[in-house]
Amino acid sequence: MAVAVSVLGAGAGRQGKANLMRFRRGWYDCLSRRADALFELTDALLAAGPVISLPYLSLDGLHRRGHGSTYAALANGRVGAEAARALLAGSLPRASCPVFAVDVSVWVRSDAECSPGRGYYYHPSRHSAGQPIVAGWAYSWLVGLELTTNSWTAPVDARRLVPGENPSTVAARQIRGLLQQSPELGSQTPLFVFDGGYDSVRLALELTAVPAQILVRVRSDRSFYADPPTRHRTAAGRPRRHGTKFACPDPTTWPAPDAVHTCTDEQYGAVTVQM
Q1: pTM here?
Q2: Is 251 within 8 Å of 257 (Cβ atoms)?
């Protein structure tokens, strides 16, 4: 439902209102059981601010049912996941250069020892035994971005990670699903950006035949190796496994770039790109 705000903001006047009404009707159609209670619960989540408890949501003016319906909706309600993904993908604002981000968000459940499917994940602010690792549920989010500097995102997909599942593999699956739901994006070759926790090699292999661009943040201490040189049949000794080393923190190991682009950004100052 957060996309509804973006959809309304994308238009003006009657058109924006029509977009919002269309989205709300589509969201209601995604609810197969306890649809009315789930729909009002969604409205209450958007309007109530910080959620203190489930009964607290039932006190919001947009939730016209008793607090018992809140528990019944969460226990017995059903949401069509694929229908919701198609609705979110179809509600994306049109852009000449579509840009998306993929990242993992952790719902901390350190004290819920009986919760099924918990895993151990990195957390930037909460620690356990002095380490930035917590027990909880991890979700892989795929959201649309804007090229302007702001904090707005358009959620498109969220999938829960099974403990031990590779985030890069799940991200590639989400990207393929998005392009299947919105084939017109493939003609624009959308850009997908990732943080440093993702495996750029695995992503490139997973998305080999997909019409998409990927941009992955690389840690500053990473090293890469070229293919080993051709070995003559008469050469003695063990064949080399790696070729020339490319160390990110050591400019002396960098090869001569094919192209260099320099510009000045209003926020970050001088920017140099070597390719």
Answers
A1: 0.81
A2: no
